[in-house]
Amino acid sequence: MDIRERVRHIIYIFDKTYGDAQCTLKYNKPLELLISTILAAQCTDERVNIVTEKLYKKYISISHFANADLNELEEDIKPTGFFRNKAKNIKETCRILIDKYNGQIPDNMEDLLKLPGVGRKTANLILGDIYGIPGIVVDTHAKRLSNRIGLSNSSDAKKVEFDLMKVVPTENWSKLCHQMVYHGRAVCKARKPDCENCKIIKYCNYGSS
Asked: Is 139 annotated as catalytic?
């Protein structure tokens, strides 16, 4: 069975098991998703969601973030870690959005990558979840599962992204990455994967070896 056929089977199973999979960061508008993804660097989505529950009630517009007192913003996001760099990136990103993009988040990879604190993972998430433009979001779960299943042998997120692009149908890019997060949390955990209860084990190099 070639790799593309294995992927088709995995997608079929994931669609049945995690059909309602979606981004695990909580947000109500595009700006909130963008800021949450900046905060999520080296931090769990659960902790980010706890922080942003209060954060988005305090800073309700892009201008509030752009004009925020830096020290105060640092304290507000401190539990997410690396808070000094994140606060600086959030303020600078919001200022750029106001000055160059009329307060709107760009809908293309090139412009998104120009924003401080935004890498390919964040850009692909924005493109997929906000604009419906297919993108592959390679977080720790997607990287781990791709390596274990045998869809990529790289530890570099960008290389994993391009490896997945070659074997995953374009229309499944965004959803499959959300499904990998669900599967990674529930079954294919980092320290000890639960292969006995894995529904895709026969299509996985790690589980079937």
From this structure: yes
pTM over 0.85: yes
- Distance in Å from the first CA to the final CA of the chain: 15
Residues 10 and 89 in one domain: no
pLDDT, tens digit, 9 for 90 and up, residues 67-88: 999 999 999 999 999 999 999 9
Residues 112 and 150 in one domain: no
Q: What φ, ψ does residue 6 adopt, rounded to 5°?
A: -60, -40
Is residue 15 flagged as an active site residue?
Answer: no
Q: Identify whether residues 141 and 118 lie together within a single domain.
A: no
Give me the CATH number covering residue 110: 1.10.340.30
Q: For residues 26 and 15, what is the distance between their CA atoms, to the nearest angstrom?
A: 22
Candidates 121, 129, 143, 163; catalytic one: 121
